[in-house]
Specification:
1006 residues; alpha+beta; Immunoglobulin-like; 8-stranded parallel barrel; 6-stranded mixed β-sheet; 55 strands; 19% helix; 29% strand; globular; calcium; Glyco_hydro_13_N
């Protein structure tokens, strides 16, 4: 009986316990499925800046978060993610991207999925326990600050390495290592002009004889902690971006610092501390694929990384079998730990291209009413899924397994009409799943976080005509007007309703102060031929969900083939951004203006967070010999245009914009980071669509891991026919170096720069042994300019170089600059607002400044209407006379002849015939002096002046007689010979008279 009762009791207890589990389940640990981040920020009470947070799980997209709570320490934010992350990046910033601390910071100490940190203003340190705010004193530096820098390089090679240091917001200087200690090299120096600043910028760089900036390790870093005496002492280490204030913070234990797959069976592995060389290094090295050890053929030291006869730092490991690209590979060495192998030179190998280069034209979402075929290139993925979402804000969607086909392309077909379907791709790389937006997505959800399928025919506005564009023949016929979409309309007195939007570009009949025309009407009236729009693709720096005023130039690409949502009237609607951009383009075309698109294929907002890197890690971005991303762009992630699938993407993207949006030209940002072959292939592809499409670019010679002979820069311009480069030689010769605001040029007081100005006047061609820019080029390869969105505006530059000049004197220099640009051979380029002496209040890098700094000030147009009319007249003169638009270098050499002129005066004659048109003896003269000068004209007789210090155009202002011309100070003159011979004006009048007589006689006879 007891045994029976015991059994019953046991049964009851088990029953109750089991049911209690369901009634009161055990509490699930937060860290199992979520991540929680609490960020406290001790806001500086002396500033009223509206700080917020930009947060991203490592390798993923970022998002804005507000400080929504407050305690005795200051404001704080609670951020929660549904997924588990072990590393989360953050930036304390304003909506205009002013950062509290320059560098990206990362939280990587989580306990049960939760991390709580405290931050102090201007201090890069992440505190995991609450610091004492009272003990933190705001640094106030004196007139000069003593700085000691200890620098350690694992490779032991310090040759050429030095420091560039500057007080925040001021000019910088070079400083050198003069001693050494047990840690490494030491530089001890004083930085002048530090009074009133609270941090010092610092860059470690390597200089060569020819290039002080041959290599830069990381970007700008900042010294923010100072000792009680105001001095600073820091420790820096190769490959470590953090500024350390104590040597104890550094980990210098032996370890692998890089391992890359350089061919299908070759791995390069690099250590920080040199290892002892043995006869058989295979004994020390283990290579595993998914945890399974594989057989090695040989292990050799890289001779370029030998420290001594018996020590080295880099190994070349060769395996018997080809290594799989879709599995995790690790390298191990006793005493040095292990490292996961990333993809290196293998991506540039012939074998990789043979196996995986895909030349199909169907990547992305291929829409039809019956079905949509999705295709994505991901050769290193072991699995891939198409993810379909019901709404843009959904965190999870329906996952559909994709099929792997040829060349590493995965595909899935969805039946039915998928117009408006929201989607992403998920790929499994090693053991990790990455989710990415389709790089070929035609439109995106708000903030570009998901792709959207579109029936593009439904995005065309009512008046859309893809077959119409304003007539245009030669590239040198172009006059380019560079414009930011928001700048045009955001001024309160612009008279434009759709302020800051694509549709604002399309409005006509708008008026500003004193009834002056604004917007599209103003541009049309000015007479330019092309409007170049700063980035209009989807970029990352603007939060499209925010209604607060935000500004950015947009040189931080997120989705290359989708328009930017902040320029649409509804960023939540994927169709509106497409339709409204097309509306703007059609309006420009209807008003006789072609459209150039500013494209930024040289880098992305973030390599880790990019759709490229999530789909095929390491492929689309260029790395140096050390396996690290190159930084020629200054953004830390140069794209690898020389790799076939990146080259293909650039060509596919450009041709898509040309066909779908009827774009008439492309301006390549930092084109010198691309390779010659890619740019020539772009030219070839666009010629098949429309040969009149213009290609221009910034051909700067930038430090990136490309051979000098293949860089698409100015030095190689002759290898890229019909691709134009910005001519910085004439830019700086006209007004002085853009890198030194006090340096002057021809118009503002510098002597002996005439030859540099002349080299631009002739279109950059090899005119003579002294007058040339880049050698064997044609005039359609030189973009002539003196102002652009970068650097100070011309007006601001003139104010810096001539602080005591009157407004009238500044105006004279400004008009002289414009006259040089608009009468030079090549392709002239002006910055929006230059025609009314645009100012940005001295801000030389206004990429994220306020609307007040960046907007076109229409009140200024009303104030400087005379300057507007002057530019308008120069444009009319250029458009109506082929002498200023010669198409070949031979023509320029035959028909342009420089005249003898006094110091700081340039004069030349345009003579004979060209282009089948006739002209005779047109003289152009520029006086850069502060006093009147006299030049001798090529012929004695009557000369008609059409441009002087006050007016410009094609109508005769006045006539002079003789063979001399007096040039007022800081003036430009254009005049043509009338004499007793038949010139082009008289011929036109005579023909008109004869035609009139014949017509009247015919009427009389009839």
């Amino acid at each position: 009986m007891k045994r029976k009762n015991l059994s019953v009791l046991s049964f009851v207890l088990i029953f109750l316990f089991t049911n209690l589990i369901f009634l009161f389940p055990f509490k699930q640990t937060f860290a199992q499925t979520k991540t929680k981040l609490i960020i406290h920020y001790a806001k500086d009470p002396n500033t009223d800046k509206d700080w917020n947070l930009w947060i991203w799980p490592y390798g993923m997209e970022g998002k804005k978060y507000e400080f929504t709570h407050k305690d005795d320490f200051g404001p704080y934010a609670i951020i929660e993610f549904e997924e588990a992350y072990d590393k989360v990046g953050f930036i304390v910033r304003t909506d205009n991207w002013e950062k509290d601390v320059a560098e990206d910071r990362f939280v990587d100490k989580f306990k049960n999925g939760v991390a709580e940190i405290w931050l102090l203003p201007g201090d890069p340190e992440i505190y995991y326990s609450k610091p004492d705010k009272k003990s933190i004193k705001k640094t106030s530096l004196g007139e000069k600050t003593k700085v000691t820098v200890h620098y350690f390089r694992y490779d032991g090679n310090y040759e050429g390495w030095n420091l560039w240091v500057w007080p925040f917001g001021k000019e910088g200087s070079a400083y050198y290592f003069t001693s050494e200690d047990k840690y490494g090299k030491v530089a001890e120096f004083y930085v002048e002009g530090t009074e009133g600043v609270d941090k010092l910028g610092i860059i470690t760089r390597r200089s060569t004889k020819d290039n002080p900036w041959a290599e830069k390790e990381f970007g700008d870093r900042f010294i923010t902690k100072f000792k009680e005496d105001g001095s600073a002492e820091i420790w820096l280490a190769q490959g470590d971006e953090k500024v350390h204030y104590s040597p104890s913070e550094l980990d210098l234990s032996p370890k692998f610092v890089a391992a890359t797959l350089d061919d299908m069976n070759i791995i390069s592995a690099e250590t920080n501390i040199p290892f002892v060389l043995k006869n058989d290094l295979k004994e020390d090295i283990v290579v595993k694929v998914e945890g399974k050890q594989i057989k090695l053929s040989k292990v050799e030291p890289d001779k370029n990384y030998l420290v001594s006869n018996n020590k080295g730092r880099k190994l070349i490991i060769t395996t018997y079998d080809k290594l799989p690209l879709d599995k995790t590979i690790t390298v191990e060495k006793i005493g040095y730990g292990s490292i996961i192998v990333s993809y290196g030179k293998v991506f540039s190998s012939e074998e990789f291209d043979k196996l995986y280069y895909y030349d199909g034209n169907d990547l992305g979402a291929n829409y039809s009413k019956e079905q949509t075929l999705f295709k994505v290139w991901a050769p290193t993925a072991s699995e891939a899924k198409l993810v379909i979402y019901s709404k843009w804000e959904d965190k999870a969607g329906q996952e559909l397994p994709m099929q792997k086909g040829e060349k590493g392309v995965w595909s899935y077909t969805l039946k039915g009409d998928q117009h408006g379907t929201i989607y992403t791709y998920k790929v499994k790389i090693g053991s990790k799943w990455n989710e990415a937006v389709d790089p070929y997505a035609r439109s995106v959800t708000v903030n570009g976080d998901k792709g959207v399928v579109l029936d593009l025919s439904r995005t065309n506005p009512e008046k859309w005509d893809p077959n119409f564009k304003p007539p245009f023949k030669n590239a040198v016929d172009a006059i380019i007007y560079e414009l930011h979409v928001r700048d045009l309309s955001i001024h309160p007195d612009s008279g434009i309703k759709n302020k800051g939007k694509f549709l604002g570009l399309a409005e006509t009949g708008t008026k500003g102060p004193n009834g002056t025309s604004t917007g599209l009407d103003h541009i049309k009236d000015l007479g330019v031929t092309h409007v170049q729009l700063l980035p209009i693709f989807d970029f990352a720096s603007i939060d499209e969900t925010s209604t607060k005023p935000q500004f950015n130039w947009g040189y931080d690409p997120k989705n290359y083939n989708a328009p930017e949502g902040s320029y649409s009237t509804n960023p939540y609607d994927p169709i509106s951004r497409v339709k409204e951009l097309k509306t703007a383009i059609q309006a420009l075309h209807d008003n006789g203006l072609r459209v150039i698109m500013d494209v930024v294929y040289n880098h992305m907002f973030s390599a880790d967070a990019s759709n490229f890197n999530k789909l095929v890690p390491g492929y689309f971005f260029r790395t140096g010999h050390d396996g690290k991303l190159t930084n020629g762009s200054g953004c830390g992630n140069d794209t690898a245009s020389e790799r076939k699938m990146m080259r293909k993407f650039i060509i596919d993207s450009v041709t898509y914009w040309a066909k779908e949006y009827n774009i008439d030209g492309f301006r390549f940002d930092l084109m010198g980071l691309h390779d010659v072959e890619t740019m020539n292939e772009v030219r070839k592809a666009l010629d098949k669509i429309d040969p009149t499409i213009i290609i221009i670019g910034e051909g700067w010679d930038l430090n990136t891991a490309l051979s000098p002979d293949v860089k698409a820069n100015q030095k190689n311009a002759y290898k890229m026919p019909r691709i134009a480069h910005f001519n910085d030689t004439i830019r700086d010769a006209i007004k002085g170096s853009v890198f030194d605001k006090t340096d002057a040029g021809f118009v503002n007081g510098k002597d002996y720069v005439e030859f540099k100005v002349k080299s631009g006047i002739v279109g950059g061609i090899e005119y003579s042994g002294q007058i040339y820019t880049w050698g064997r080029i044609e005039p359609d390869q030189s973009v002539v300019y003196c102002e652009a969105h970068d650097n100070n505006t011309l007006y601001d530059k003139l104010k810096f170089t001539n602080p005591d000049a009157t407004e009238e004197e500044i105006k004279a220099m400004h008009k002289l600059s414009g006259a040089i640009v608009l009468t030079s051979q090549g392709i002239p380029f002006i910055h929006a607002g230059q025609e009314f002496m645009r100012t940005k209040q001295g801000n030389e890098n206004s990429y994220n400044a306020s609307d007040e700094i960046n907007r076109l000030d229409w009140e200024r147009k009303a104030k400087y209407l005379d300057v507007v009319e002057y530019y308008k007249g120069l444009i009319k003169l250029r458009k109506e006379h082929p002498a200023f638009r010669m198409t070949t270098s031979d023509m320029i050499k035959r028909h342009l002849e420089f005249l003898n002129a006094p110091k700081n005066v340039i004069a030349y004659v345009l003579k004979d015939k060209a282009n089948g048109d006739e002209w005779e003896n047109i003289v152009v003269a520029f006086n850069g002096n502060t006093s009147e000068q006299t030049i001798k004209l090529p012929k004695k007789g009557k000369w008609a002046i059409v441009v002087d210090e006050n007016k410009a155009g094609t109508e005769v202002i006045r006539t002079i007689t003789g063979d001399t011309l007096k040039l007022p100070a800081k003036s430009a003159y254009v005049l043509y010979y009338k004499g007793s011979s038949f010139n082009f004006v008289y011929i036109a009048l005579l023909i008109g008279l004869i035609v009139g007589i014949l017509a009247s006689r015919k009427v009389a006879i009839n």
